[in-house]
Amino acid sequence: KQWYQRRVRGETVEEVKEEVVVSEEPVEENLKHKAVVQNLTTGQSALRNIQGVLSHKDYHYHGLRNVQTVFPSESNGFAAGRRYAAHHMVGSGGRLGVIDLQTPGQNNTPQIELVNVGNPTVFQWDHFSDRDILAVGGDCSRVKLWEIVEGQAKLIAELSGHRSKVTQLAYHPGVSGLLATCDTQGVVILWDTPKQTQIKSHEIGEDDGCAAMCWDLLDGNTLYIAQKSGKVTALNGKTGSKVETNVGGEIRNARIGATRDVVVLSWHGAMNARHLSALSLQGAQGGFHLLGSHALGIGTSLPAPLIDRDLNLVCCVARGEASVLPFELRLEPPHIMPLAIHNDVDTQYACAQLPCSARDLMAVEVIKIYKLCKDSVQLITMSVPRLRKEYFQDDIFKSALDFSSPILAVAEWNSGSKSYTVKDIDPCPEGVTKMSNVEVVKKSSQHSKIQQEHLKYKSQEAQRDELFNSFAEQVQRDAGPLEQDLMEGCEDDEWSD
Length: 497
Description:
- The structure is a single chain.
- The protein is mostly beta strands.
- It has 7 helices and 35 strands.
- Helices cover 14% and strands 38% of the residues.
- Strand 25 (304-308) and strand 26 form a beta hairpin.
């Protein structure tokens, strides 16, 4: 910079060299810039070209009525199960509407309605039960279990134990019938839903209300709880022991989830600042701590994370927006890598993730999302573009955690009679060749291709000589031998004199 300014003023090179002093130590700003560039360019992601596709209207659900677009901050607003999906409805009595996912298209039949005494805050489907059971927590300090039978809603149980509003609930991913709930006073209760009994109760502090909660996938005993004081607690569900770490600010609202490698937290801080943070697992080397954070801008609605546990993929969707923000989570820096953004036309009020079994792995589908709009539910498929789809893309789908069936029952988990072990399976279908096993044919370089094409053509001189030679040969063939060559018309000794 000094060199340029002195040369512009007309000074000679020798004068500038004598007076301009170049420091051997790098400038601090340059170090910061270098660190940012290195952070953005470190590594390559196989999911970097991810793209979202809105499915055909035949797979949408139209004609929904009385959809509530404003709901409590603790709720995701939409939950999808194997057959049904639930959402908030307009009206008194804490109503929830249920959609039959097996009948897409125009909805001409009345929706199934669940009428709760209090206003529902959170709800989630039981993914292991043979019956379609929906757990609903509300401001009545109770958890209600609803069952959908032949198009009718039936209240089968009310779980009492909390003394304030239930703000979070989470079914265990590997133990059938194990439900964790939390209230505003920081009381965490574990329920045996088949027996409708309470098996454990823990307190995390009244001043540190629960903002979000999820289970650890591999450990099976740990609950990750985001608290409004800015702490994230790893609570052992059996013993009650806990480990805490700080995310660097007060949490107004949050959503939390876990993958096979990291814990992801989307939270609302001061001044409506939105953040996405990655934390290490409780049993990981180095302990439970914050890995890194990524700013999601400023907004009034919280981006809810939709997580693929096997790919360490999280898609953030916010109420009142029309975009899907995908990120890849890593243990090494950069811990949060932004991917290609999917922008849509219709505004979304809530989103729900389909089970992993609904993906078509041969079409390189990584996640499927139900998008709740004003009067419809749309289906978005996030996939990675690949050319050789006849082969299994094992660089993306390396392995998968098997949660297709329960690992333990509630009684086995509570007593500790059996160990909690998650199987790691190969997701490649039988009889399909993996892309890593395909022999790669080395193609010639672009220069050699041009050279080979050039050899096919001759120069103008060569073409002219070839044409002249061929014409002379043809004339000679057509004329035949001369008369003197045949010695016709005279005797042999006529010219002897």
